[in-house]
UniProtKB/TrEMBL annotation, chains A, B:
PROSITE patterns, alphabetized: HTH_CRP_2
Magnesium in keyword set: no
Protein name, as recorded: Crp/Fnr family transcriptional regulator
SUPFAM superfamilies in alphabetical order: cAMP-binding domain-like, Winged helix' DNA-binding domain
Lineage: Bacteria, Pseudomonadati, Pseudomonadota, Alphaproteobacteria, Hyphomicrobiales
Species the sequence originates in: Rhizobium bangladeshense
Limits of the HTH crp-type domain: 145-219
Keyword entries, A-Z: DNA-binding, Transcription, Transcription regulation
DNA sequence: CGCAGTGTTGAAGCATATCAACTTGGGTGG
DNA sequence: CCACCCAAGTTGATATGCTTCAACACTGCG
């Protein structure tokens, strides 16, 4: 069931059989959410953390005027609120952007991992640090890249992350967001997103149809995005 | 020497005497950097992590066209590259924005903490998670706040963070950045920053002169920023 | 004293937002 | 099974926030 998580952690260091078994043993309670439902509400203090097995989810904050900013996108294998374990109180909400299948880990069990499994603890810590690295990359994209490059960068990132958990097929992957949601990810208006997407499509960089993104020219896409995947820490080494 | 770190960690949970002593014992090698020097270069694999004792530092990335985006600001008491311990390879540089006094912690010693001091491990983990929460808040500010509100939000954040480590005096704090650096933090041009700052000054919200920011109207500043400090996790509770 | 980095100002242009209308397509109830 | 409906996508027109460029003032320092 939790194969995607094992692929994720396993892409950064070798997991022992004991570690794998322990993770399997604490990740048992599963749940389903419909698109639009909150997996975790802002301000809550969940006693468990949520591993996404299938679907797309997003962390977000809503402003006083009703506008929304999505601060992270999550896919299969992502521990969407692992940070809630040390942090305790959610400072943002997490919403399902498609039907989501999740499984829960009690914070008591995570605590036990920190008491007895130092290596696994470091890998879970690393998992939250990669989230942070992605946040930084988004900040760079929002602050200093053109919107066109920002979009290209996001596509590169999603492709690499989905590849780790085997959710790509050739040069394509499922991408169930609406343009409205995508605009909330990028921090731009839907209209401008729509026009920029069309330009990229016309140029033959990538297409996005029927909830599927297909990369047409990977070289060119990376070039436009100035994409360098180091920040994703996809490299198996002792941690 | 490391009082600022103890204030930082101690603002989130109670530190035992044993934990304090251990931290003191591993943080011994100190160094000084001049403004403009790199504390940690991009692409490096430092065998230690750097605690900032005094001064301002920034994490940054440089784009192909030479423009720069600062992704984090660090002040006294911040472990500027604690994340390098599990991550290993730096995906960004860290530069001193003022003369900086730092002290180093060997990764071997940090590893020992994860093996024997689970509670302290969780507090260090939390420290890196607060960095992540700040990143998210910056993403929100860049994407969905006016530049004016973004600036106000940053001032609120810095004031609260500096208060934790006792680096405020009344409604003022030292802020040694140039407007050029500040613009790289916000992801805007210097010219526009300059004009927006003047508007805020004219309105009597805050002033920024001779490397010192003074908040004139804290209520109004928070209002403009829509500032809510939960994300900083400044609350002592069992972690 | 003079230079270099910083701060300030005004003018002009561009990127992006906003507003409004229209199209398209999938889902649903009559 | 068709008709309609609503959400999503698309388009064009207009408005504006922000950038860029260029010039000048200020200040600290060698």
């Amino acid at each position: 069931m939790i194969e995607a998580l094992l692929l994720n952690l396993g892409s950064r260091d070798v997991l022992s059989g004991e570690e794998e078994n322990l993770l399997r043993s604490i990740l048992v309670k599963d749940r389903h959410f419909a698109a639009g439902e909150d997996l975790v509400p802002e301000g809550s203090r969940p006693p468990y953390s949520t591993l996404l097995l299938d679907g797309f989810a997003a962390r977000y904050k809503v402003m006083a005027d009703g506008s929304r900013q999505i601060t992270a996108l999550h896919v299969a294998g992502d521990f969407v609120d692992l940070h809630a374990f040390p942090v305790k109180k959610m400072d943002h909400g997490i919403v399902a952007l498609s039907p989501c299948h999740v499984v829960l880990a009690d914070h008591a069990d995570l605590r036990a991992i920190t008491e007895r499994m130092p290596h696994l603890t470091r890998l879970l810590w690393l998992d939250t640090l990669v989230d942070g690295a992605i946040h930084r990359e988004w900040i760079v994209a929002m602050g200093r890249r053109s919107k066109r490059a920002q979009i290209a960068h996001l596509v590169c990132e999603l492709f690499m992350r989905l590849q780790v958990v085997r959710r790509t097929r050739g040069e394509s992957f499922q991408f169930p967001l609406t343009q409205i949601e995508m605009a909330d990810v990028l921090g731009i208006s839907v209209v401008h997103l729509n026009k920029t997407l069309q330009a990229l499509r016309r140029e033959g960089v990538f297409t996005w149809e029927t909830r599927t993104i297909t990369i047409v020219d990977w070289e060119r896409l990376q070039e436009i995005a100035e994409f360098d995947p180091v920040y994703l820490s996809i490299s198996r080494e002792p941690r």
